[in-house]
Amino acid sequence: MFLFDSDYFIQRIAVPGGLADYIAEFLTQFYYYPALGSLILAVCFVAFQRLVWAVAVHNGTDDFWYPFSFIPALLLWFYMGDESVLLSLVIALIAALLFMLFYTEQSNRPDQHSRLLFKVVTLLIGVPAFYWLFGSCVFVVVLYVLFFELAHRQQIVIGLLSILYAVLIVLLCAQFLHYPLYRLFIGINYYRFPSVIPYMQLVLMVLFAIFPIVLYRLPCVRRSGRVEGGIMVVLVIGGFFLIRGGFDPVKYRLMETDYLVRTHQWEEIISRAEKHQPTTPMGVSCVNLALEMEGSLPDRMFNFYQNGVEGLVPAFQRDFTTPLPTSEIFYQMGMVNSAERYAFEAQEAIPNYRKSSRCYQRMAECELINGQYQIAAKFLARLRQTLFYRKWADDALTCLYHDRKVEANPEWRKLRSFRFTKDFLFSESQMDQMFGLLFAHNLKNRMAYEYLMAWQMLERNLQGFQKYYPLGRFVGYTEIPRSYQEVLAYLWTQSHTSFEGIPYSVTPEVCNDVTDFARAYIANPHDPGLVTGKMGGTYWSYLLCKK
Fold this sequence. Notes:
elongated, about 550 residues, mainly alpha, 3 domains, about 65% helix, Serine Threonine Protein Phosphatase 5, Tetratricopeptide repeat
């Protein structure tokens, strides 16, 4: 949540690295649109590469070594595969390269006396200013100054004193700031988890400081298009595998799925699951939610991997990602208070104590639905200071203390009729009972009923299924969903040898599938095709998997 507010700016700038953090958060808000986020990162990496080369050129590096200037940018890209690395680190490193470029240009002055005076004044003023504005990347600058003076055999003492000067500045700040000393040295807002010391970051900072000097020290080589082309090919291939190794595909697929949930792209979630089925509770619950929103959960849920009731409503975890899709499940079902609680818990679990516009929007919606307008006004006031949520907040503000306007919103009107209106003891360990109570409160709540039935099937509670199945007459099915037919056929076969006289509208196709499955199981109980092949995607295959 980036706020266009003077207090927000003062809050950020009041700690070392605050300007880098402020700029980074300003840019990060544009990730609301993935294409803009990709463009911003691309511009940052290109700017980083160009500045590395500019510093190297001003040191006198031969043009032959230009392809090597991409290495720092590739390493930074690799490191940012860790989603907890914040953009403020990139902004601070770009600022450090600009400082290094400025220092290098002015160090090439012909007049030795003016050059020395310039270096002293620049470091005396620039080092503390840079530390306060951009944080501990100041050590990239002072390390570069030391290696620059060593490589060019100039004032080496200035390089040593600049490092000592930077350390003293940090120690001085430690006397007035309530931060652990190690955080003041490694950076306050470069990494999302305050208690983690990112050693990779420290290695990269040292490497980036000496890299332009390393390029400068390489010998001059006669240019050859073939050799340079070969180097570029190696860098492209090596960079591809390097960057690919920095990204956890499972984690990023979950992030993409969460984005699709937030934007209600249900068909896309299902399409992706058909190509690569998720197995984690968060991923499976998102697929089941998408199926429900598309009206096909009872028909198709066993066409996808199911890991039990965790795939319906994942157990609560105290982190800032997994509760968000679960909040969406509760919200769509009408459990408004639970949806708000999960959104609040997700926001409060953010390690660096930042706020989330997405969570604020969900909490504001829930309070509007509950008619708690005074609380909703507080959330909306903050959202009005954002860029991408301002229009929504302005529209929502017109609904305050106007029940008719809230009712005019089809989604809010529906959820108002679904939500619980009486207090009771909510139990996360007995979610099927919560679904049942929600459905009993409003028999038009089809999602509550289908989640109740799915819970019974995933728990293999066939008695519970038989108990709640008759309630389906209130939902308005034109035909019995596929998975319900499979359970009914399975129950019938436990006491009958044929389907003659079955009192349910089970299609001949389901009856034939049950017969084929039974024959295949009797012939070879250990046949993997029963759960993964032709027979896969049925309730019986799920039962067999869970034996």
